């Protein structure tokens, strides 16, 4: 299918759910201003609707913040505490798309939306790359379809009330900018 200047080979319109086994919601943030700490969330879900016109597509997603995993149990517990995510009061992070625009390059778009963390909602834009559409080889009937997407962007954690920091000589111990990367494989639930 072609929309504007972008061609999407094998495009399928419909409603999709995330295959969480084959998907990742990850992040990276500067630590001590010399390296990056990476982490991911293990518990999330999303629903995608790919419209007959791809630019009419939308997504809603929920991430359970308690599922944070940075490879350090002590650090993960600190992230769940009031200093950072305040999971007891704000157990989820949500995203709701508000628009989709073509970007330069085959299968590339800009995905606009509203991200809510700790009860604070801000507009965000993610770079979206469509990995492709194809048959679902895990479907025993052989009639299903799968799609792959990569979304990435940078948010300022302090704008969402995640503003704890650790002063160190010459600066701060934790960067304010957080790189967010989502590698999503979705399964067609219903066709358009």
From TrEMBL:
Spans traversing the lipid bilayer: none
A Pfam family the protein falls into: YceI
Taxonomy, superkingdom: Bacteria
Matches recorded under Gene3D superfamilies: Lipid/polyisoprenoid-binding, YceI-like
Domain Lipid/polyisoprenoid-binding YceI-like: 15-187
Family to which the UniProt record says this protein belongs: Belongs to the UPF0312 family.
Protein name in UniProt: YceI family protein
